Amino acid sequence: MLVKVLHNGNCSKSNAVLEYLDENGVPFEIINMIDDPLSVLELKTVLKKLNQSVFHIIRKTEKLYMDNFANKNFSEEEWIKILSENPSLIQRPILIKGSVAMLGRPIENVKFFIEK
C-alpha cells in the first residue's frame, strides 16, 4: 500500500524516514507541507487518521511558536487554522496509510507502521 509522507525537506527526521522507505522498497508519495500547505479540512482529516488532537502535532520548540504562540490559549479550531497558515509548526514527518496515520518518529515506529 502506498504511504503518503507529509514532509519538510529541511527536517533531518523527515529526510531519514524517506531514506528508510526508499531503502526498504516501500512505495511512497511525498507531500511537501512547506511548499504545499495543508488546508484546514486536510489537517482535520490528518488529525482524525492520527486519532489525536491538534495539540499533539504542534512543534513547540520552533522559534515561530516561541515568538508568536507560546503562552497563548487558542482553541483546537484556531490551532488548526494557525498550522494551516504556518506549516513549519507541524510535527513531521507524518505517515498516512489508508485510514490511519502516525508521526514518523522514532524510526522504529515507522518500521512497525509499515509492516502492520
TrEMBL record:
Protein name: Arsenate reductase
InterPro entries: Arsenate_reductase-like, Thioredoxin-like_sf
Pfam families: ArsC
Organism: Chryseobacterium soldanellicola
Origin: domain of life: Bacteria
PANTHER family: ARSENATE REDUCTASE (PTHR30041:SF4)
Family, similarity comment: Belongs to the ArsC family.
Cited SUPFAM superfamilies: Thioredoxin-like (SSF52833)
